[in-house]
Known about the structure:
Blueprint: H1 25-31, H2 54-60, H3 73-83, H4 90-97, H5 108-114, H6 121-130, H7 132-144, H8 146-149, H9 154-173, H10 175-185, E1 197-204, H11 213-223, E2 224-231, E3 237-243, E4 250-256, H12 264-274, E5 281-287, H13 290-295, H14 304-307, H15 327-355
Parallel strand pairs: 4-5
Antiparallel strand pairs: 1-2, 2-3, 3-4
Helix pairs in contact: 2-7, 6-10, 7-9, 9-10, 12-15
Amino acid sequence: MSNIGPNFRPPWQQAQSGLSKQPDNASATENTQQGSIQNGVNPGQNATQPSLSPAALSGLFATGLQSELALASDQLLLLLKNLLQMPKELAQLMALLADVAPDSAQALLQNLLESEVPLSLDKLQQLLLSHADAAQDKLLKLLQSTAMSSSGQSSQLGELLGTMTELLQKAKESPTQALHSTMSLYLPNYPLHPPQAFSLRFEANGKSDSDSEESEESSADEESQLALFINTLTLGQFKITLASQQRAPIEAVIHHEAIAAHFEQELIRQTDLAMGGPGRILLLFVPKTGAKAAHQKPPSEQPASETTSNNLNNQSVAIHPTGGVSMTALYGAYALIRVIFEVDTQNQVHLTRAML
């Protein structure tokens, strides 16, 4: 089983691709003495990276690429993050939002996870949407340019525009959905191919269905937990809950089907690797059996109004901790989503080869 996949790089390593030499907000993050987002200030206003024009974006693909060759998925995702003026790695984005400034790139993840500063989902939503119109306009101009429209890459850029539009529409729904869109941007194989899918919501921990919505909202900061729902190709379905308040280590309770039991040690190993070492997240596996497994189904990636009724506690997707969420919980959730999809994809490859 491979380590998280060919595209995985820990946050302290530079991603290697045809676009790796292009400037991005990662360098701006490391060189910033003070946080770029305070009181609603847009990081793009103080970033050292210049705004990318359609001509500059075309130049991203002019070197080392022939027009008839399709762009790799990591190149498309890097282009999308460049358009939205977001760093390459999720850890860099979280550090920017929380004003965490490590002494070195290698210390970034450690400092981030040890920080007691919670990450504001409202601030994350504001950041994601602040560059939305300009990013879509640049991508449209790039798509319409003569050089690109005559190449085999134009259809990919059209699909990329559709992906961007879908992500931004979801991000407008709520801060929780903005978190979903952000995590999606940092999955190496996004957009996912069904049945692979994930969704997330915050649940008021310990509250019964009879509690009022006001009670749930008031308790969200103190007792909320982040719930992940993951559909896979070969490992069945998962529900994972992580406490949103600051804890060390954070506990992740993983409800899974029996078929995934054989991969527990691999999930632990790769999640520890993604978290920069053991001891930062504790995975507790709980197999689902019988009728319980049949009824606890994660929602698909549909609008919140269509999926809320499928969620276990029928709680609104709008519930989120207004005081912020633990860095460890958020990064742990991202690491688990990424690792589960990678292990699932690798298992699918092995199963396919065994049938040949």
